[in-house]
Amino acid sequence: MNFISELREGLGISWRAIRVNKLRSVLTTLGIVIGILTVTLMGTAIEGVNRSFVNSLSFIGADTLYVQKSDWGDHSYAQWLAMQKRRELTLEQAEAIGKQVSLARAVAPADFTRLSVQYEKQSAGGVTIIGSTDQMLLTSSITLADGRFMTAAESDGGRPVCVIGSELATNLFKKEGALGKRIKIAQRQFEVIGVLQKQGSMFGDFDNRAIVPMLQYTSAFVHTHDVDQIQVKVSNASDLENAREELRTIVRRLRHLAPSDPDDFAINQQDQILKMLNRVTGTMASVGLFITGLSLFVGGIGIMNIMFVSVAERTREIGIRKALGARRRTILVQFLIEAATICLIGGSIGLGIAWPLTLLVQRFMPAAMSPLIVGVSLLTSLLVGVVSGLLPAWRAARMNPVDALRNE
After folding, report:
1. For a surface tag, which of 161, 255, 300, 380 has the fewest beta carbons within 10 Å of its beta carbon?
2. Based on the domain organization, do 214 and 300 belong to the same domain?
3. What is the pTM of this model?
4. Is residue 403's pLDDT more than 90?
5. Chain segment 36-55, per-residue pLDDT in tens
6. For residue 7, is pLDDT > 70?
7. What is the structure's pLDDT at 254?
8. Of 207, 234, 268, which closes a domain?
9. What is 157-199 written as a DSSP string?
10. pLDDT digits (tens, 9 = 90+) for 390-402
11. Into how many domains does the chain fold?
């Protein structure tokens, strides 16, 4: 008998044994169901966070550098306070960087404030108002769902135009299009010329914002030339490190720092956030692995106990099969298949429960069940079955047929 035939015969015998002991099989699978459910839900949570992160991070851009007072890395509260005391960046410095940097494709200053926005009887509070230039279209990798971005003429002339986020557009214009409408930002009229594509809120409420020309922003809202950041889009991603060093040299010169003085600014980039995400997802995975390991360990012990009982109950059957010529490998494969089948059934039930739960979780937080997660869950349940059933199957395969036939 070849191995394929042994597998086919083992599947048939295992399935009949499971059907004969339905209640016992169901109770045995409970631990596996809980374990696989934990594996799947943890995987969907991490997958959802990663997808949401990628969508929200797209505006930062892998080839964009951000000159700011403070950095995005980990630091103590004392370090954060020290960074807040640094001198502000200015519009003049942004303009000088734009003229002097050679490895950049675009340079855009950006400043942020929160104000109320109104259209007729509809209003929205706490809207992020961003003052910038036409170059922000490139530096922030902005994607428009409708309309257009501000032109160089509108930016240089400080025209009262704005580009708004998808959430703000929905809140203000419930039954009509936003383009061409005039909204009030802190009682100042602005014409809506574009609506941004939805970006999500992983790193802030980016869909509840309005971008206006910097000259209009400084004259109407803040009355200062200080800016929160200067965005620098590198011409070639392969020159990112060279561009970073060139930018650092230029900013130090503009801020009149001596060679021995430390930087009183930070140059941030996407990699810093990626490292933070990896730490967060790594922690989630570690906690999930511990919980999952406990669940699967308990489920595996249950499978092993039941398989020992099954071997004891079918000792005479094993003896008869051996007396008729069944090899040790055949008996071993039969009981391994039975254990693996029970675990696969439990894994399938766990996935069946996890699917609607994932849909429910999606209403409150990012979650996504991918084919990879389904495959990993089923493979995990199969491995648990094989490992848990190995010792009972080995004992069954090593039985002496004479002793087994004497068993009553």
Report:
1. 255
2. no
3. 0.65
4. no
5. 887 788 778 777 777 766 66
6. no
7. 94
8. 268
9. HT-SEEEE-HHHHHHH-SSS--TT-EEEETTEEEEEEEEEPP-
10. 888 888 777 776 6
11. 2
Q: Kind of pairing, strands 122-132 and 209-213?
A: parallel
Do 264 and 281 fall into the same domain?
no
What's the token pair of residue 175?
């039954």
11 and 99 share a domain? no
Q: Which amino acid is at 90?
A: T
SS3 90: strand
Contact between residue 190 and residue 161 where contact means Cβ atoms under 8 Å apart: yes
Q: CA angle 152-136-198, nearest 5°?
A: 120
Q: Which stretch of DSSP H or E encloses residue 147? A: strand 144-147
Dist CA 403 CA 137 (whole Å): 82
Phi, psi of 293 (to 5 degrees): -60, -40
Q: For residues 131 and 115, is the Cβ–Cβ distance under 8 A?
A: no
DSSP state of 87: P
Q: Write the DSSP assignment of 297-329 as a string of letters.
A: HHHHHHHHHHHHHHHHHTHHHHHHHHHTT--HH
Helix (H, G, I), strand (E, B) or coil at 26: helix
Neighbours of 24 (CB within 10 A): 15
Co-location of 52 and 139 in the same domain? no
Per-residue tokens: 404: 């087994």
pLDDT surpasses 70 at 202: no
Please indicate, yes or no, whether residues 355 and 297 belong to a single structural domain of this protein: yes
Q: What is the mean pLDDT of residues 334-338?
A: 79
Q: Which two tokens stand for residue 69?
A: 């007072």
Helix (H) or strand (E) holding 139: helix 136-139
- In this predicted model, what pLDDT tens digit does every residue of 49-83 receive, in sequence order? 777 666 665 556 668 899 999 888 777 788 888 88
Classify the C-alpha dihedral 57-255-133-137 as positive or negative: negative
| Full domain range(s) for residue 196 | 64-268
